[in-house]
Task: inverse folding
């Protein structure tokens, strides 16, 4: 059950949008397709909806092979980044569209539409036209329209991408709650890792038409399969062949066999968090994330020499981001903190 | 930079003066001349059997050519914008042909094709079809000269609305036909309306091509523009002016109907074309 895509390929002229992609989305889950633009995440979503035909591969929705099924028969709800509102119809007309196509009778349509408008908090605006709504309202209308026909799966293509930051945050909390109530299998596409981690139970990280890794937010953050995933799901510093998260970095005044010397270039205070930018002797630029208390204890100043100690670092076999390099955290002999060897 | 007040008024007067001299004065003159001695004379001229027949024939041209060109125009625009095909630039160029060729030449070419020595003429005559010097030939000429307008108006609107609304309709269960009637057509109706107005005006006023294929036989193959021209040549000025007025009123009625429809379309947020002029389409637009 749920959605399963197997061995999907899709080429647009000279651009390989999907290059042997397989994903498995559990029934009733909320999954995010995460990746930079051009990674193939939207193409994959559109292929699941039937809006794009695959060159090869299969799409199975709730146990039925839907590969050859046209979009109109797949029973998916699709929400577009730019709403795709029917501009010549009222909010009511938009939400009722799928029901009118299914030839429901008038009274039933009326009841169902108002039920949905209540759900998306647009009940007073049924007679408005999309032009008279804000972006957030339009997107909620589009969501109500998609949900009206009780789709087997709900697909959202960068649903909050065109909205401003505040509305985005509200809407994603709201989407999360909506999903908890409805339990319809949902996939949403985003390039924003924070949004993906905030909303989704499962993340699928894509890059250059391939799936780099999938798993829960914690799995991806703590055990990234490769450099690409590590740097896409969070901030990262590179020290030779090793990758260190800025919060996995200690700054000390006394050097030892595990530290590296650096000069403090800039100290940026961002509320609770402090960002220390350093330059190493070989010219590498690095930043460490400290708390304000730590900064006060260390009494760091710009221009000062300090010593950097990675608490935890990862290296991947091969530096190409598209190879499946296994992560190998370094362990110190005493089994305590994982750390970097002294000399790099 | 905003122009100073005198400059602004200067420019406005210039615009009005130019339009007044070139457009309003001649048209106004016709109205003045027609009703100079009251309503009786023009009324009499327009109720003569020849005049009534000319009006009816002109309306017949509109009734046949406009719907055909509208259906073809919308279909063709959909093909050009929504389907990616190597032949699209060729179709696009062919559609512009009526703009490029003088109507008189169009008339001549139809004459050559359907005349007694033409490719189709003898065969059709054998089957009992009279194309030249009869209404079918005139309809052909009318369709030819007014063919590009709907396509040219609808193509930019289709490009403007994009494909997402249509895709949304399909995910909601609509088939191609339902999507066209419920989503695409309402979204482009303003462009279609403009195209219909222009097509109608063109068919109403067509002279050159129709003159040649019709033979201009009074009371038989004479449309209103031909009637006006003949009346003028025969110094029946009253009839000529009155005929011109009727033509102008017919065109104005179409415009009026469309602007009423347009206002309704506007209030519901349909995409309105920004320019009436034909806009060339680019050939490498991505398909659906």
Result:
């Amino acid at each position: 059950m749920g959605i399963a895509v197997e061995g999907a390929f899709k080429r647009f002229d000279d651009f390989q949008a999907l290059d042997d992609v397989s994903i498995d989305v559990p029934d009733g889950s909320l999954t995010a397709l995460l990746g930079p633009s051009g990674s193939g995440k939207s193409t994959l979503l559109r292929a699941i909806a039937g809006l794009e035909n695959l060159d090869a591969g299969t799409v199975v929705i709730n146990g039925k092979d839907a590969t050859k099924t046209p979009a109109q028969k797949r029973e998916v709800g699709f929400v577009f980044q730019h709403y795709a509102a029917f501009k010549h119809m009222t909010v009511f007309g938009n939400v009722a569209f799928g029901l009118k196509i299914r030839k429901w009778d008038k009274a039933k349509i009326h009841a169902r539409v108002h039920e949905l408008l209540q759900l998306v908090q647009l009940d007073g605006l049924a007679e408005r036209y999309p032009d008279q709504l804000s972006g957030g309202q339009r997107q909620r209308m589009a969501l109500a329209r998609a949900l009206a026909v009780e789709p087997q799966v709900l697909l959202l293509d960068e649903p909050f991408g065109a909205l401003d930051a505040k509305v985005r945050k509200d809407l994603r909390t709201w989407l999360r709650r909506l999903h908890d109530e409805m339990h319809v299998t949902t996939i949403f596409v985003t390039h924003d890792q924070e949004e993906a981690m905030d909303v989704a139970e499962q993340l699928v990280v894509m890059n250059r038409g391939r799936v780099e890794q999938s798993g829960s937010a914690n799995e991806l953050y703590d055990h990234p399969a490769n450099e690409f995933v590590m740097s896409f799901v969070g901030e990262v510093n590179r020290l030779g062949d090793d990758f260190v998260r800025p919060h996995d970095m200690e700054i000390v005044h006394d050097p030892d066999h595990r530290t590296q010397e650096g000069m403090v270039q800039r100290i940026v205070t961002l509320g609770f968090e402090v960002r220390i930018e350093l330059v190493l002797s070989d010219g590498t630029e690095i930043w460490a994330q400290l708390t304000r208390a730590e900064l006060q204890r260390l009494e760091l100043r710009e221009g000062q020499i300090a010593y950097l100690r990675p608490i935890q670092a990862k290296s991947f076999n091969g530096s190409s981001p598209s190879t499946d390099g296994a992560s190998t955290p370094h362990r110190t002999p005493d089994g305590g903190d994982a750390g970097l060897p002294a000399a790099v | 930079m905003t122009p100073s007040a005198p400059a602004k008024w200067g420019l406005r007067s210039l615009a009005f003066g130019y339009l007044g001299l070139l457009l309003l004065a001649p048209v106004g003159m016709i109205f003045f001349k027609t009703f100079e001695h009251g309503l009786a004379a023009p009324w009499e001229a327009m109720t003569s059997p020849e005049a009534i027949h000319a009006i009816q024939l002109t309306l017949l041209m509109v009734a046949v050519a406009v719907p055909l060109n509208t259906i073809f125009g919308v279909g063709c625009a959909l093909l050009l914008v929504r389907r990616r095909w190597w032949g699209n630039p060729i179709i696009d160029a062919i559609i512009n042909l009526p703009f490029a060729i003088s109507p008189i030449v169009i008339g001549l070419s139809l004459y050559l094709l359907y005349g007694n020595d033409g490719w189709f003429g003898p065969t059709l005559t054998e089957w009992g079809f009279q194309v030249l010097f009869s209404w079918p030939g005139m309809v052909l000429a009318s369709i030819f000269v007014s063919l590009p307008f709907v396509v040219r108006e609808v193509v930019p609107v289709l490009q403007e609305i994009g494909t997402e609304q249509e895709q949304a309709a399909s995910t909601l269960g609509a088939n191609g036909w339902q999507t066209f009637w419920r989503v695409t057509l309402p979204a482009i109706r303003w462009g279609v309306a403009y195209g219909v107005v222009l097509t109608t005006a063109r068919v109403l006023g067509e002279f050159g091509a129709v003159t040649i294929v019709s033979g201009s036989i009074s009371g038989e193959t004479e449309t209103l523009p031909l009637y006006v021209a003949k009346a003028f040549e025969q110094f029946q000025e009253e009839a000529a002016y009155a005929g011109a007025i009727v033509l102008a009123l017919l065109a104005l009625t179409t415009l009026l109907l469309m602007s009423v429809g347009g206002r309704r379309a506007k209030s519901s947020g349909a995409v309105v074309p920004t320019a009436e002029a034909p806009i060339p389409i680019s050939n490498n637009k991505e398909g659906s």
Observations:
- The longest helix of chain B spans residues 49-82.
- Chain B has 14 helices and no strands.
- The CA atoms of residues 3 and 9 of chain B lie 10 Å apart.
- Confidence is low (pLDDT under 50) at residues 269-288 of chain B.
